[in-house]
Design goal:
283 residues, alpha+beta, Alpha-Beta Plaits
């Protein structure tokens, strides 16, 4: 009886098994033919370029990632040097692959935070209890007295893939040893406090403030803000006053006596150095 049952099951099941096996084989053949016909040939030169890129997908080059930048730079060598994380070393490797010579790529571009106010330097209207994001806090009025300063909720730090930005005592601070100049932090700041600047020297002098309020009002809510007094502009033509705020022309910056005089005469210490071996701010 048991044998008859097994034979009966076999007689009923094997046609379905054969059909499934046939369908599986047919699908495999179709997929094989499709993979051969639809195969995209990768240019060996593009693959070489892709391999020398840092693969951090930061978008600093203007493309979605390294996979898009590699064929683009092969077709248009003027795009060499757009890879900020790779810097001059990657630019030289790409030029070698393309068998071309490139001119000096210029000074590396790095971020400067135009604010130097730490927590104790700021005036707050109340404790913010909303979403811990600079973008969210910036949408509200009166989160802190200075509507131009760093909100310190770390949108820039989360945007950085190189751990080169940290919130230190209420202020976004760049670790220039780790920074690659990708620009992600600059794009993330809702107050546009982070500017990408050509570092013609290891340490750059800058104005660590973005307030456009008049000097008296600025001093009422920030002890280290620029008051637009103009003393720096009188010492060096690298500085100019615009909208109650001192601004530096980085193309004119040199570590000379005039700029040092401007640095030393700033009454609030708003002029600071930024870079790998920058001295601590005065005051």
């Amino acid at each position: 009886m048991i044998l008859l049952t097994i034979l009966d099951l076999w007689n009923n099941a094997w046609p379905a098994g054969v059909i499934m096996l046939g369908l599986g084989g047919a699908f495999a053949i179709v997929l094989l033919i499709a993979s051969i016909r639809l195969k995209v040939e990768v240019d060996p030169q593009v693959e070489q370029i892709y391999q020398v890129l840092p693969h951090v997908e930061c978008g600093a080059c203007g493309f979605a990632g390294c996979g898009q930048y590699a064929p683009a730079v092969q077709k248009d060598p003027t795009l060499i040097g757009k890879c900020a994380p790779g810097g001059a070393a990657v630019a030289a490797k790409i030029a070698e692959i393309l068998n071309i010579q490139i001119s000096n790529q210029g000074a590396p571009v790095r971020p400067i935070v135009h604010c130097r106010a730490h927590t104790d330097d700021k005036t707050f209207y109340g404790r913010y209890q909303g979403i811990p994001s600079c973008t969210s806090a910036n949408a509200l009025a009166n989160v802190q007295a200075c509507k131009f300063g760093c909100l310190s909720f770390g949108d820039c730090t989360r945007a950085c893939k190189f751990d080169a930005l940290h919130i230190v005592d209420g202020l976004a601070t760049v670790d220039y040893d780790k920074c690659t100049g990708c620009g992600a932090c600059s794009k993330a700041c809702p107050r546009n406090l982070i500017q990408m600047v050509p570092f013609s020297h290891e340490n750059m002098m800058t104005v660590g403030c973005s307030s456009k309020e008049n000097g008296k009002y600025t001093r009422s809510f920030c002890q280290v803000g620029c008051i637009g007094c103009g003393l720096c502009a009188k010492q060096s033509d690298a500085f100019a006053i615009q909208d109650n705020l001192a601004r530096m022309d980085y193309a004119k910056f040199e570590p000379n006596g005039q700029n040092e005089a401007a640095y030393n005469k700033c009454p609030t210490g708003a002029i600071v150095y930024r870079g790998k071996s920058a001295p601590a701010p005065r005051g």
